[in-house]
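Structure, all two chains, one model.
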Amino acid sequence: MSRHDKLVQVLQSVTGKNSLPGDSESLFDAGVLDSFALTDVVAGLEKSFGIRIPDSDVSPRKFDSIERIETYLQDHGA
Amino acid sequence: MAYIQGFGAWLPERVVTNEELAARIGKPASWIADMSGIDERRWCAPGETVADLAVHAAEDCLRRAGVSPSTISMVMVASGTTERRFPGPASAVADRIGAAGIPAIDLPLASAGSLFGMSLASRLTEAYPRILVIGAERMSAVIDLNSMDPSTGMLFGDGAGACLIGSDPGEWRVVDSVLHSEGAGASILQLPWNGPLEMQGVQVILQAARKFPAVVQEVLARNKMTADHVDHYIPHQANQNLILRIAKSLGVAPERFISNIRMRGNTSSASMLIAAAEAELPGQTVCFAAFGAGVHWGSLLAVRA
């Protein structure tokens, strides 16, 4: 499974929403994420990708869209 | 060995309902309740100071513990909303309760202040055998409902809480405590000089939702306990949705979390001690936890003595 597909799977599983916005669109503006849901997504990413995401990296800016999350994962070797 | 010998609290008379705030922030009263779990909060009367609140809570605590102020060996006052840069209210509070001359220390830490005070006090009782820790806040003085994000301005209330920590046996024996600070997050929640409180709500919730359960797990793991061993969790009363979230993260029933936020709002450093003073605590184990501006966060574990 590609990184992208795995990421989408985490987002769908955590948020319970099958329909996600386009890769560059804001997950917050689309109502997919709020601060509590992002905490769950971060935990889901840590588990699925086997990485540790430090608290200092957990910000809406870095996790605002599928594209940004994928970039973050790529930069951190996931 | 340190013991918690009693709690106390004091709240201003004026009740500020969601209906009153709704008109001022342009949101329905039901929106405030849904976002925060808060129905009402108390605000000070004009002229009431942080020291006034602290003195009332201190006197309530001493009365409940049956302790004379002349036997207190140290006072700590946590507050993020004091009226002047210095001195802070601690020395005036010690003076006014009848404990002049003892060391009186200010802890300008905001929401985690009373937890830090409790932790430090529990480690100082050999030298200072009876320490009064107070959290007192006049949050209504640092919010501006006209300019602030409505989801921030509606949260806060005024009040004070207190607890007595000493070397003589009391109701609860302090087992351990954990404190942390992380300056990288200092700007997500701050009170600039001359400005209203500034809070990046999403960032604060994100950090709190991760650090709160982690620091509880840390103090429990250090003492070979699990979340299920704790009968009562007494967290800083930041937001009811956050409290429920922490319970879920720890895998414990929300009923184990003491919450009075519905009627008190978020009173920052005072909230945890007000909640403790107002709660029935029949169990054997209690865990306090707080997270706040700085960012500072920590937990304190105690068992029935």
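Chain A touches chain B through twelve residues (CB under 8 Å).
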